[in-house]
Prior knowledge:
With 66 residues, this protein is mainly alpha-helical. The chain has one domain (2-64). The chain has helices at 2-22, 31-37, 56-64. 3% of the residues are buried. The mean pLDDT is 80.
Amino acid sequence: xxxxxxALAVAALAVGGAVSIAAPRSANAKPEYAAATGKPCGAxxxxxAGGGQLTGAGEKYKKTLK
Length: 66
C-alpha cells in the first residue's frame, strides 16, 4: 500500500512538473527601458501601470529585441 501511495505521489509530481514547464509564459517586462528613457510604463503598455497588452510603440520596441 505504501509503495502505491509513493508511486501516485511521484506521478503527481511528474505531471505537475511537466505542466509547469509546458505552460505558456508571458513576455519578460523591461522596466530597465522605462528607467533608461524616463518614459512611464504606459508609453509601451495599454495599462498605464505596465504589463499586459502593448501599444503600437510597445510592439515596435518588442520587435527590436529579437
